[in-house]
């Protein structure tokens, strides 16, 4: 049984952080959500937690060391789960600086605050403390279509400014463990999808464009492969990594669900045609448009999650088919959440292929 009963979650107003906050509160942890509230954040996704005695929110920037230090001193959490980041690959190509600032400089500022805080703890609290860094499989670069899978031993070879900044942050987290003894665990996950996914990412963008009978943009030839995981399965894995992961280790998390982008788009079209046919009777696959490929677009990601399965007893509950249908149903039933974001905050002009 873990001694961790309270967790500071950074980036808890984002897509995965929100799923983590909802899960941990439901499971009885005291959760302190620290988030800057960038364009990607949405507190509406956490409305269900308002008024919960074991949930607190602080608006703060991870780069602001003194503020983070004072929140840690006040809240006296048992662990930190670090998800705050700039995450959208296309945005990192247009403007990499903020990715370096938040993902690299911000992670180092957070590590410093965590180290100072950990050093104030004593006895059992100090032994139990964990800094869990949440990262991506994109740090490993890409694979050929017929090449193997990423394991924990795969060398880092990031391609985009986003993945380079996450790779750098992973290295700093390991360095704070090796150099200063900070108790850390890391996890690298494949592409997530599910409820409250920001409408600029591939799956929600395609669901919502298809629902509205708009064109469905697909990069290049659409044969790029991603390994998909339902977000609640990721949240379950993160809880296990935090509470049962071995110090200094990293765990690959993935759903063994490799799909080509065009395959994902076609599946969404077919699901929506069956649930809400277009008034014209037209099949939604006819809305697919191939557009100029993203520069440096990674061909394939694929994760081997054997270590997390064997050492932590984690298994994804959703297959890609069940998870995708749940996600489509969720978007059909929750336009109160996505419609204001799509209409007021985000034009829907960009594409995404996940994180
Ligand atoms: P997201 O973009 O939905 O949310 C990121 C959150 O971080 C937002 O709420 C934002 O306000 C907050 N944030 C950004 N800069 C901040 C700062 N300087 N200080 C405090 N908060 C800040 O991201 P996500 O998709 O939920 O991803 C969460 C984490 O998981 C990231 O670290 C990402 O690299 C990693 N990851 C994501 C995926 C994926 O498929 N989405 C896959 C693997 C790993």
Automatic annotation (TrEMBL):
**So what EC number does this one have?**
4.2.1.46
* Keyword terms: Lyase, NAD
* Alphabetical list of InterPro entries matching this protein: dTDP_Gluc_deHydtase (IPR005888), NAD(P)-bd_dom (IPR016040), NAD(P)-bd_dom_sf (IPR036291)
GO MF: dTDP-glucose 4,6-dehydratase activity
Q: Which NCBIfam families match?
A: dTDP_gluc_dehyt
- Which superkingdom? Bacteria
Q: Its catalytic activity? A: dTDP-alpha-D-glucose = dTDP-4-dehydro-6-deoxy-alpha-D-glucose + H2O
Q: Which cofactor does it need?
A: NAD(+)
Instruction: Tell me the enzyme class.
Output: lyase
Q: What is this protein called?
A: dTDP-glucose 4,6-dehydratase
UniProt lists the family membership as follows: Belongs to the NAD(P)-dependent epimerase/dehydratase family. dTDP-glucose dehydratase subfamily.
Q: Start and end of every NAD(P)-binding domain?
A: 8-327
């Amino acid at each position: 049984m873990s001694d961790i009963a309270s967790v500071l979650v950074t980036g808890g107003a984002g897509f995965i952080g929100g799923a983590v906050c909802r899960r941990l509160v439901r499971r009885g942890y005291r959760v302190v959500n620290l988030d800057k509230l960038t364009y990607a954040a949405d507190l509406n996704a956490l409305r269900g937690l308002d008024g919960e005695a074991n949930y607190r929110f602080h608006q703060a920037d991870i780069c602001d060391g003194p503020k983070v230090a004072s929140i840690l001193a006040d809240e006296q959490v048992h662990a930190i789960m670090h998800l705050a980041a700039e995450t959208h690959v296309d945005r990192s190509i247009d403007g990499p600086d903020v990715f370096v600032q938040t993902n690299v400089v911000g992670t180092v500022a957070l590590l410093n605050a965590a180290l100072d805080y950990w050093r104030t703890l004593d006895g059992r609290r100090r032994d139990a403390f964990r800094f869990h860094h949440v990262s991506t499989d994109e740090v490993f670069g890409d694979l050929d279509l017929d090449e193997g899978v990423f394991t924990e031993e795969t060398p880092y070879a990031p391609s985009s400014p986003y993945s380079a900044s996450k790779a750098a942050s992973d290295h700093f987290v390991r360095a704070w463990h090796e150099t200063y003894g900070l108790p850390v665990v890391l996890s690298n996950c494949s592409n997530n999808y599910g409820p409250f996914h920001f409408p600029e990412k591939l799956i929600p963008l395609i669901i919502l464009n298809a629902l509205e009978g708009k064109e469905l943009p697909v990069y290049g030839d659409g044969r790029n492969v991603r390994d998909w995981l339902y977000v609640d399965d990721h949240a379950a894995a993160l809880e296990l990594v935090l509470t049962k992961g071995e110090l200094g280790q990293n765990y690959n998390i993935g759903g063994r669900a490799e799909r080509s982008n065009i395959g994902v788009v076609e599946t969404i079209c077919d699901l929506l045609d069956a649930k809400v046919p277009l008034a014209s009777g037209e099949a939604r696959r006819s809305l697919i448009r191939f557009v100029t490929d993203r520069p440096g677009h990674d061909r394939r990601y694929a994760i081997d999650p054997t270590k997390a399965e064997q050492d932590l007893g984690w298994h994804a509950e959703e297959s890609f088919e069940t998870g995708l249908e749940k996600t489509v149903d969720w978007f059909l039933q929750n336009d109160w959440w996505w419609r204001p974001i799509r209409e007021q905050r985000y034009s829907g002009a960009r594409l995404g292929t996940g994180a």
